[in-house]
Amino acid sequence: MTKPPSHRLVPTKVAALAVGVSEATIRKWVSRGKITRYGAPHRRSQFDIEELTEIALQRRP
């Protein structure tokens, strides 16, 4: 998978706020393969806001 443009990448805290979950949930989703983490190992994680938007829409009742 290619890396999205940098203007679409957000840190973990913003990712959690965008979807309405905790930062711990974001990390769990990464470990389970539900979302893609971008960034070098042992560096700050970043997430594609487009991917997060899709997840947020799926979570709506």
From TrEMBL:
InterPro entries assigned to the protein according to its UniProt record, in alphabetical order: DNA-bd_dom_put_sf
Stated name of the protein: Helix-turn-helix domain-containing protein
